[in-house]
Amino acid sequence: MIPANSPALAAVITAAALMSSVATANPSPAAAKPATSSATPSTPEGSLDIVQLGAKGDGKTDSTKYILQAWKNACKATGTQKIVIPAGNFLTGAILLEGPCTSDIIIRLDGNLLGTGDLNAYKTNWIEIMRVNNFAINGHGTIDGQGPLVWNHNQCHKSYNCKILPNSLVLDFVTNAQIRGITLKNSKFFHLNMFQCKNIHIERLTITAPGDSPNTDGIHVGDSTNITIRSTSIQTGDDCISIGPGTKTVRISDVKCGPGHGISVGSLGRYKDEKDVEDLVVSNCTLKGTTNGLRIKSYEDSKSQLRATKFVYDDVKMENVSYPIIIDQKYCPNNICSKSGTSKVAVTDIVFKNIVGTSATPAAVTLNCANNLPCQGVQLHNVDVKFAGKGNTTIAVCNNVHGKSSNVAKPLACL
User: Fold this and answer.
1) Composition bias, kind Low complexity: at what positions (predicted)?
2) Does the fold of domain 262-415 match that of domain 1-152+161-203+215-259?
3) pLDDT score for 17
4) Which of 13, 72, 24 is nearest to 48 (CA)?
5) CATH T-level assignment (fold) for domain 262-415
6) Overall average pLDDT of the 107-128 stretch
7) How confident is the model at residue 340, as a pLDDT?
């Protein structure tokens, strides 16, 4: 994952404190659903069906202007308006769907949207929803970034000062939205990115890209509040779900992840003025064949003073996961930071409970915290993850961490 903190970088960039008891996790926040306007629905200024407007679902003809026209027609209306993308393959370039709108808008996606391989067609992202309240995307269609056409242009594995390829679906400054049922496939960069959003409900998505595809995070959340992700399958070349700075009250449940890099918080502390990450619950999830499982990572020479606090990971199954449980306060990819051992990112009140399965490496638990700012209030309860490789020697690596454990497999009881 390449973290960022503002739309200028392509927008890429409370579980209760369970200090002494982990018997009950907070209930998930209320599902965010687009409100229905009480006003009498108005007639929009033209059709909301992109085929009726002139789009051709032949996979070759540019349909960008017809989607933009349908949005314009819906946005100026009142009540609830439904944009229809019917069966077919609709090729498009960059699509900016911007508000504020006077209506509540639903996009019914039953066809397939194909992102052109011509990178000159994008300023930043592919499909960007900006400054919109009461919005939904649902259906059985696919948002296909056609990433294989451009992945060879991605140089971010060599340098963080790289050109960011377009994210597939981006929500910026969106409040009260639901995304349900659709498939996101082969993004050029991130599949779904949220920045400064509130009350977003994501359900029954399928996100898929090859395990070796570069920086194809499934869902990234930054500077956002009250996010629910449930009943979703994610296969990617990077984090299945990544939680960035400034994000609070996130509920992730019934997610299947793998291949990919797991469910990650961070990276934290790369930029100045980052905000806390607080109140995360991950429950009833399965991770299979991922490079990491449940991960919290912050830069060793972090620029910001912030907290990662009040996280609960409950009922998670690991299948051949390389590093199932990992806190890394000494994250330093590509040697871009000085390895001073210092940190400004406080990691506190983190609970791992009912975590079972197999590890692809001996280190089933890795808690590598900063010398100057040890992790506090870390708890391991009912944790039994075994190394499945030759020799079956399972270990825990714990540095500069304070907390407690109960009913933990003996090799992992390092607290």
Assistant:
1) 29-44
2) yes
3) 32
4) 72
5) Pectate Lyase C-like (2.160.20)
6) 97
7) 67
> 1 or 65, which is more confident?
65
Question: Which are the contacts of 67, defined by CB distance < 8 A and separation ≥ 6?
Answer: 50, 55, 83, 85, 90, 92, 95, 97
Residues forming beta bridges with residue 286, ordered by sequence position: 256, 317
Mean pLDDT of 196-225: 98
What residue ranges do the domains of the chain occupy? Answer: 1-152+161-203+215-259, 262-415
- What's the rounded Cα separation, in Å, for the pair 357 and 362? 13
Q: Radius of gyration over alpha carbons of the chain, in Å?
A: 22
DSSP string computed for 182-251: -EEES-SS-SEEEES-EEEEEES-EEE--TT-TT--SEEEES-EEEEEEEEEEE-SS-SEEE-TT-EEEE
Tell me if 48 sits within 8 A of 71, measured CB to CB. no
**Which residues 6+ apart lie within 8 Å of 30 measured at CB?**
none
pTM over 0.85: yes
Supply 166's token pair.
């377009």
Active-site annotation, residues: 261
333: alpha, beta or left? (left if phi > 0; alpha if psi -120 to 50): beta
Closest CA to 254 of 332, 304, 314: 314
Q: What pLDDT digit, counting tens, does each position of 11-52 carry?
A: 433 333 333 333 333 444 444 454 444 456 788 989 999 999
Question: Which residue would you say has higher pLDDT here, 84 or 35?
Answer: 84
d(CA 274, CA 200): 21
CA distance 351 to 382: 11
Which residue(s) pair with 365 in the sheet?
325, 396
Is residue 224 predicted with pLDDT exceeding 50? yes
CA dist 70 and 111 (Å) reads: 15
CA distance to 39, 53, 105, 212, 379, per residue, from 102 (Å): 10, 21, 9, 43, 48
Separation CA 371–CA 109 (nearest Å):
51
